[in-house]
């Protein structure tokens, strides 16, 4: 088993050694300092692969909030299927994305960042989702910010089963300017868990994503694919609509709006080639409603326009999107409400 024999880390790695080690882990050259945006992949349908040659497995992406899990999932799938924002706790559901490359089919499971700060019903539900996601997989990508590790990371690491290989994925490597300082960090990380491999990278760098595929491929068991090679996700269009509105909501309101605001799709209809969506943004207080609507309704209008444009791109059709805002105080503390809004 790969994680029975962690890679030895040089005991007194100088910056050069570390660079060489990182280069080996990543394949040369090291990532450029600035991140490059990952373009949406034009999904090429893979050539016929005989069933006997197919490999297929589950890969869970775990980590505390805001380390870049959703950015990574989107880049791996080659399409935006998970929303991202600077606001922690954007991902609230287990999202499965697929990617088929050559003989390999990867089934990726994205998880909400594990919540340690508040014990409300929403967070209890989120944490249960994380636990469910890591128990039955072939490989775990434990995502941290390169060079950093705190209590929140430690709590996630503690949850990981010992019998499944875990790759330490040191994300946001583009933000590390003194790579030499990573050596002691890496040593301390190896003491915390017998990681199968160490991958410093940037989820925003397409070349790093290619290398990550090569690294992960060898952990997939040999078995027939579970999905069509051009399938990308098991999430419904209705779900994607709610997620897209939620992303724009968080991006455009910044830190003013508490993360407990959510989006519920009230209507989803196919009208010829067009999709008609009506959704409600649910906030906890009257004051939050104003933040969402903005002066003369400008903010809400922008949220609607940006979400509509992204959905039109995603589905390649015209979208008619109607948005409402409602106040439901205390919903995130109420188990029944949390369930009624679609959380498991
Ligand atoms: N510089 C840099 N920023 C990154 C990288 N990966 C992600 N980010 C940024 O980090 C922020 C958080 O990314 P997300 O992908 O939403 O993080 P997450 O872990 O899914 O967050 P939760 O949904 O809260 O669990 C966003 O602003 C991303 O653009 C990276 O490799 N380099």
From TrEMBL:
<keyword id="KW-0694">RNA-binding</keyword>
<dbReference type="InterPro" id="IPR004044">
    <property type="entry name" value="KH_dom_type_2"/>
</dbReference>
<comment type="function">
    <text>An essential GTPase that binds both GDP and GTP, with rapid nucleotide exchange. Plays a role in 16S rRNA processing and 30S ribosomal subunit biogenesis and possibly also in cell cycle regulation and energy metabolism.</text>
</comment>
<dbReference type="InterPro" id="IPR005662">
    <property type="entry name" value="GTPase_Era-like"/>
</dbReference>
<feature type="region of interest" description="G4">
    <location>
        <begin position="171"/>
        <end position="174"/>
    </location>
</feature>
<feature type="domain" description="KH type-2">
    <location>
        <begin position="245"/>
        <end position="329"/>
    </location>
</feature>
<feature type="domain" description="Era-type G">
    <location>
        <begin position="55"/>
        <end position="222"/>
    </location>
</feature>
<keyword id="KW-0699">rRNA-binding</keyword>
<comment type="similarity">
    <text>Belongs to the TRAFAC class TrmE-Era-EngA-EngB-Septin-like GTPase superfamily. Era GTPase family.</text>
</comment>
<protein>
    <recommendedName>
        <fullName>GTPase Era</fullName>
    </recommendedName>
</protein>
<feature type="binding site">
    <location>
        <begin position="110"/>
        <end position="114"/>
    </location>
    <ligand>
        <name>GTP</name>
    </ligand>
</feature>
<keyword id="KW-0963">Cytoplasm</keyword>
<feature type="binding site">
    <location>
        <begin position="171"/>
        <end position="174"/>
    </location>
    <ligand>
        <name>GTP</name>
    </ligand>
</feature>
<feature type="binding site">
    <location>
        <begin position="63"/>
        <end position="70"/>
    </location>
    <ligand>
        <name>GTP</name>
    </ligand>
</feature>
<dbReference type="InterPro" id="IPR009019">
    <property type="entry name" value="KH_sf_prok-type"/>
</dbReference>
<keyword id="KW-0547">Nucleotide-binding</keyword>
<dbReference type="InterPro" id="IPR005225">
    <property type="entry name" value="Small_GTP-bd"/>
</dbReference>
<feature type="region of interest" description="G2">
    <location>
        <begin position="89"/>
        <end position="93"/>
    </location>
</feature>
<dbReference type="InterPro" id="IPR015946">
    <property type="entry name" value="KH_dom-like_a/b"/>
</dbReference>
<dbReference type="InterPro" id="IPR027417">
    <property type="entry name" value="P-loop_NTPase"/>
</dbReference>
<dbReference type="InterPro" id="IPR030388">
    <property type="entry name" value="G_ERA_dom"/>
</dbReference>
<feature type="region of interest" description="G3">
    <location>
        <begin position="110"/>
        <end position="113"/>
    </location>
</feature>
<keyword id="KW-0342">GTP-binding</keyword>
<dbReference type="Pfam" id="PF07650">
    <property type="entry name" value="KH_2"/>
</dbReference>
<keyword id="KW-1003">Cell membrane</keyword>
<feature type="region of interest" description="G1">
    <location>
        <begin position="63"/>
        <end position="70"/>
    </location>
</feature>
<feature type="region of interest" description="G5">
    <location>
        <begin position="201"/>
        <end position="203"/>
    </location>
</feature>
<keyword id="KW-0690">Ribosome biogenesis</keyword>
<comment type="subunit">
    <text>Monomer.</text>
</comment>
<keyword id="KW-0472">Membrane</keyword>
<dbReference type="InterPro" id="IPR006073">
    <property type="entry name" value="GTP-bd"/>
</dbReference>
<dbReference type="Pfam" id="PF01926">
    <property type="entry name" value="MMR_HSR1"/>
</dbReference>
């Amino acid at each position: 088993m790969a994680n029975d024999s962690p890679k030895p880390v040089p005991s007194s790695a100088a910056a050069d050694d570390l660079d060489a080690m990182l280069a080996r882990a990543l394949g040369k050259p090291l990532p450029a300092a600035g991140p490059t945006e990952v373009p949406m992949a034009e999904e090429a349908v893979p050539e016929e692969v005989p069933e006997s040659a197919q490999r297929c497995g589950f890969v869970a992406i775990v980590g505390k909030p805001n380390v870049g899990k959703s950015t990574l999932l989107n880049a791996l799938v080659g399409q935006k299927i998970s929303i991202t924002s600077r606001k922690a706790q954007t991902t609230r559901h287990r999202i499965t994305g697929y990617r088929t490359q050559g003989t390999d089919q990867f089934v990726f499971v994205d998880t909400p960042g594990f919540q340690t700060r508040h014990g409300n019903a929403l967070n209890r539900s989120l944490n249960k989702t994380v636990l469910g996601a890591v128990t039955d997989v072939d490989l775990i990508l434990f995502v941290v910010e390169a060079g950093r590790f705190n209590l929140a990371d430690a709590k996630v690491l503690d949850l990981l089963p010992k019998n499944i290989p875990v790759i330490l994925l040191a994300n946001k490597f583009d933000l590390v300017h003194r790579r030499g300082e990573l050596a002691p960090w890496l040593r301390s990380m190896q003491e915390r868990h017998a990681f199968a491999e160490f991958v410093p990278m940037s989820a925003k760098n397409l070349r790093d994503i290619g290398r990550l595929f090569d690294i992960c491929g060898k952990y997939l068991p040999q078995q027939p694919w579970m999905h069509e090679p051009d399938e990308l996700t098991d999430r419904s269009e209705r779900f994607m609509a709610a997620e897209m509105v939620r992303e724009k909501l968080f991006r455009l309101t910044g830190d003013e709006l508490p993360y407990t605001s959510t989006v519920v799709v009230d209507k989803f209809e196919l009208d010829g080639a067009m999709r008609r969506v009506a959704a409600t943004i649910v906030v906890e207080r009257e004051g939050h409603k104003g933040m969402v609507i903005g002066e003369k309704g400008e903010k809400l209008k922008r949220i609607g326009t940006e979400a509509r444009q992204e959905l039109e791109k995603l589905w390649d059709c015209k979208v008619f999107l109607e948005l409402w805002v409602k106040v439901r105080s205390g919903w995130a503390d109420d188990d029944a409400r949390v369930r009624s809004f679609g959380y498991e």
